[in-house]
Amino acid sequence: MEKVINCFNRQPGAAVRLLCFPWAGGGSIHYARWGNLLHSSIEVYSIKLPGREARVKEHFFGSMQEVVDEVVSALLPALQEKPFALFGHSFGAMTCCAVAEHLKRVHNIEPVHMFLSGVSAPYSETRLQAPKKSRLSDEDFLHWMKVAGGTPSEILADPEIVKLFLPVLKADLHIVENFKISRPDHPFLSCPVSCFDGTEDSPHDLEAWRDITSGEFNIQMLPGSHFYLKNKPNEKVLLDYITKHLETAEMDYL
């Protein structure tokens, strides 16, 4: 399990675990920090994927199924042990969906809450018609990254650093662009689903996520572009929201 998660603050007595999935090309540290910011009743597991950080020498995955298989294989005992929630931004939100669908279908367990950010539902027309960014030339890809924001300009200006992170970023985008899931005829979850997005980001079909659950569904917009969640005031809003809803989930579970 240690190979797959980064946990800054172990909380054996926590009532619920929050699994956080990285955005495309992202590492685990941003979310692992949340373990020091959230209440001790919430233990944060930040997912580490191959091709980055301590796993930089490992070949990155080529399909969503590979991601799901590793995460579920490593974390299933922990997920069966106590209530858990999922958070993901962009590529991470797609990964949340894939993991949640697999857990429900194969193991008949589901999160107490899903927090999804910065991306259309995988079966929505908005997503299906979107251009495939993994096919862009490196020059056009870097231009898109500058427009999207979230990556320091000094990193994008350093060819050696770009050479290191561009392949894994494109690999993650290839995974999500080829991730296929049909619009559910019936919701496969019953837990609440909360969606977030930046007001200045490209429009996403967040409403389509409603189809995955029969439970409560909410959308909240926060100021900023694609990486709005890196803004400290927005991060506080997110963490306060997560805390409030997971504390409520704890009471319901008990």
From TrEMBL:
Keywords: Fatty acid biosynthesis, Fatty acid metabolism, Hydrolase, Lipid biosynthesis, Lipid metabolism. It catalyses: (9Z)-octadecenoyl-[ACP] + H2O = (9Z)-octadecenoate + holo-[ACP] + H(+). InterPro entries: AB_hydrolase_fold, TEII, Thioesterase. It comes from the Eukaryota. It holds the Pfam family Thioesterase. Its EC number is 3.1.2.14. The keyword Endoplasmic reticulum does not apply. One of its GO terms (molecular function) is fatty acyl-[ACP] hydrolase activity. GO terms for biological process: medium-chain fatty acid biosynthetic process. It is an enzyme of class 3 (hydrolase). Residues 17-238 form the Thioesterase domain. Belongs to the thioesterase family. This is S-acyl fatty acid synthase thioesterase, medium chain.
